[in-house]
Amino acid sequence: MPKPDFKKHIYRYKRYYTYMIITAVALILPWFTINGNHFFLLDFSRMVVNLFFVKFNMQELYLMPFLLILGFLGVFFMTTLGGRVWCGWTCPQTIFRVIYRDLIQTKLLHIRKSIQNKQSPNKKGTTIKLILAVLIWSILALVAGSDFMWYFIPPQTFFQYIQEPAQHPVLMGFVLTIAGFLIYDITRMKENFCIYVCPYARVQSVMYDEETIQAVYDTDRGGIIYKQDPRTGVSIGKKQVNNKKELLEQEPDAECTYCNACVRVCPTHIDIREGTQLECINCLECADACTKVMGSLGKPSLIEWNSISAVKEHRKPKFLRFRTIAYGVALTIALVALIFMSLTKEYMLLNINRTAQLYQLDDHGKVVENAYIMLFQNTEYKKHKYYFQVLKQDKTPFKGIYIERPKESFVLNPGKKIKKIVVLATKEDLVKNYKKDVTIPIIIKAYAVDDPKKIVVYRKTIFAFPRYDYLKKEREKYKR
Q: What phi and psi, each to the nearest 5 degrees, are found at residue 428?
């Protein structure tokens, strides 16, 4: 028996391998941690975000705008370069449909005749098999719903919670709602979700240009099946030939066999020979089908993954052009900014508020004290011992101001907060202003005593010093 020619299905198998990799990553990634941190975890119960295996407190969500910018720019860049390549190669909707339609219905239960024919109805007498297919998919939908929740609740915690479902109705409700939607979507809505519901189809239409990579039917070789606008050359959606005979009468050199294999295999039920269409998801099933038919005739496929201009001009597509370069530069800037902000992450949080009283005098007016309310938070995965010191604006020690209390460092467990009343004091005459109280800029350097190089933050505040004539007057009172 001759070996099958896998080159005839190069896109299909590459796509299947991509699906398997994405599925494996989606299932395994939530279980993988570094120093207790996940690649991505939005944990509302502990009010933390794990990103790239680094933990951020909710107060550090200044990174989110960069993530959103990266997401939008990534979509724009990907669409301009490769059309709806996301839809055909990485979208969960497409992956789930392939699992349900091609694997469960076609390969396992033989409800459908062939994965190369997505238009023909199901075989008769398959009610039991249809029910079984839905049941199998329902189990997978529950797994998918659970996997989705693992990016909000760590998997270990998730499995602890589901052992007592009555105690966690919100979690169970989310899982069942997601699973229910996936069951309805994949078994009933099908590709109509891509065509009518998904907003990406509408967005991508304004990002295409003549160099966007997509599934393209070569009208020069295959012949023109649909009537075209004479001014623009764009199909007007009405056939001008209905069979091979009519096509050859108009174009004797046309290579299209009119086998309609590309139409039968299309999951969104379009005819790629009509040209660029909103419903096309760039799955390239049509290219595989045409490759098989034309390959048997010793000819290359009439459907290519290429740009419209490149097919017409018989050249390679232009990947480097103004749009792609602009999006690439913007993506790089956003990514660098995100990495920079991530690297400057603070491993502890410190908020400083002054008390209502600007200052107070002690020791018969010899000591000026300022009180602060400082909120410390340990955002690390292990406990640390913290303390702080007073610095000048140039970050050198402010020897004239000392810490009255607390006198000693304190321990803070992972994720915990502690509020401290901090009193700074001075015995020196820092300024001699006879007209008004003076606020002296200072910097509070808070750090982990056990790891001062890594865990350190700086906060600007002020130290209030009284009018010097008032200070002298108060001191005179005590002398009497």
A: -100, 155
Among candidate residues 195, 7, 214, the one with its CA nearest the CA of residue 94:
195
Which domains, from first to last, does the chain contain?
6-31+84-204 (no CATH), 214-313 (no CATH), 348-479 (2.60.40.10)
**Which residues lie across from 54 on neighbouring strands?**
51
Q: Give the span between the Cα atoms of 203 and 86, in whole angstroms.
A: 13
The DSSP element (H or E) to which 245 belongs, if any, is helix 244-250
- Express each pLDDT in 316-339 by its tens digit: 888 888 888 998 898 888 888 877
C-alpha to C-alpha distance for 65 and 84, rounded to whole angstroms:
25
Contact 273, 257 (CB under 8 A): no
* Spatial distance between the Cα atoms of 159 and 469, rounded to a whole number of angstroms: 69
Positive or negative, the CA dihedral 93, 94, 99, 100 is: positive
436 — phi, psi (to 5°)? Answer: -160, 160
Q: Tell me the C-alpha to C-alpha distance, in Å, between residue 304 and each of 11, 30, 107, 239, 311.
A: 11, 37, 27, 21, 8
Under 8 Å between Cβ of 50 and 41? yes
- Output the CA–CA distances (angstroms, integers) from residue 471 to 432, 464, 466, in the order listed: 10, 12, 6
Q: Residues 183-237: pLDDT tens digits?
A: 999 999 998 898 888 888 777 777 888 888 989 999 889 988 888 766 656 677 7
Q: Beta 235-239 vs 303-306: how paired, if at all?
A: unpaired
For residue 142 the two structure tokens come to: 């529950």
Tokens representing 67 are 């993530």
**Strands across the sheet containing 456-465:** 410-412, 384-391, 438-448, 456-465
Residue in the block written with tokens 């998919």: 137
In this structure, the number of other CB atoms found within 10 A of the CB of residue 18 comes to 14
Task: Write down how long the chain is.
Answer: 480
Please report which confidence band the pLDDT of residue 4 belongs to, taking 50, 70 and 90 as the band edges. Answer: very low
Q: Describe the crossing of helices 127-149 and 169-184 by its angle, rounded to 10 degrees.
A: 140
Q: Which residue has the tokens 């050198």?
A: 396
Token pair, residue 299, equals 């000819």
pLDDT at 2: 43
Q: Which residues pair with 239 in a beta bridge?
A: 226
Tokens of 423: 């009193």
Give kind and range of the element (H or E) at residue 336.
helix 322-343
What span, in angstroms and rounded, lies between the C-alpha atoms of 384 and 413? 7
- The reported pLDDT for the residue numbered 1 is 39
- One-letter-per-residue 3-state SS of 256-320: CCCCCHHHHCCCCCCCHHHCCCCCCCCCCHHHHHHHHHHHHCCCCCCEEEECHHHHHHCCCCCCC
